Amino acid sequence: MSNEELERIMVLNYTNVFREMLLSSLKANPKVTPDYLSQSIKRQREVEEQISRRSEEMARALVSRLKARGYLAKEPTRQALRSMIRQVLKEFEVKE
Amino acid sequence: MGSRRGGDFGEFAGRTRSVGAAIQEIQKTLSENKPARIVVGTAVSVLAISNPAIGTLVATYKVSKAVYNIASKANDTYERTHDTNKAIKAAAGEAVHVGIGAARDQAVGNIVDVGWTSIKASSGIVTNELQDRILTSATKSTLTEVLPK
């Protein structure tokens, strides 16, 4: 297997972790879940499609940054990784 | 975590005042019928201020490398034998150092369920039960996609 394969697996795994966490924030969250489940099925589907899209975009953005700094082969420090993750989340968050 | 497996996102994300306030913002976007991208972007903002969520994403880096090693072993075996069962057994051997006999999808689930402690130990990650639920669920999805079919 190659570096391209490592990159693909990292994007895929980060996508799945982002998706799990975002779905949990709506579907396993006593303060939000009743409101979420009271939305129409069509709207729930729209939100879940948006979660999938956003999860993949965030994963690609993060892995791209890791790759640019040579962190696919060499492991970043915990602090550097936390900082890159925070930057990506800030980039994709929306504050009303 | 997730609705199928129970668990509480608030507990996962940490019960700080700022996380609580951010979770209320998600609720508001739903009740005010905001567009899906706003609902999801608001949920992302909760992750951005949650230390356990960021810790889970830090651990994901090492878990991804472990998944890569498991997939490499499986693919090497598949290229040599063209036998999916042998490839999945090689993946199981890499993850948990024991044989797992089962249909492919079940075997992938078993690799993660049985091998999780070993994957964590070899990756050097320290996570709690709620973080483990997120990571194991995601790892199963990833392995299901990348292992030979």
Briefly summarize what is shown.
Chain A is built from 4 helices and no strands. With 96 residues, chain A is mainly α.
Mean pLDDT of chain B: 88
User: Could you spell the SSE succession of chain B in H and E letters?
Assistant: HHHHHHH
- Tell me the count of domains of chain B: 2
The structure class of chain B reads mainly alpha
Mean pLDDT of chain A: 95
Task: Give the helix level of chain B as a range of percent.
Answer: over 70%
Strand content of chain B: under 5%
Name the helicity range of chain A: over 70%
Count of separate DSSP helical elements of chain A? 4
Main β-sheet of chain B, in a few words? none
Overall spatial form of chain B: elongated
Structural class of chain A: mainly alpha
Q: What proportion strand of chain A?
A: under 5%
Q: Determine the oligomeric state from the structure.
A: heterodimer
How would you describe what is shown here?
The complex is a heterodimer of chains A (96) and B (149). Chain A has 96 residues and is mostly helical. Chain A has one domain (3-92). Chain A has four helices and no strands. Chain A has helices at 3-27, 33-37, 41-68, 78-92. The longest helix of chain A is centred in the middle third of the chain and has 28 residues, at 41-68. Chain A is elongated. The mean pLDDT of chain A is 95. Chain B is mainly α and 149 residues long. Chain B has two domains: 9-49, no CATH class; 52-146, no CATH class. In chain B, helix 2 packs antiparallel against helix 3 and helix 4 runs parallel beside helix 7 (129-146). The longest helix of chain B is centred in the middle third of the chain and has 31 residues, at 51-81. The two termini of chain B are 27 Å apart. The chains are: A mainly alpha (96), B mainly alpha (149).
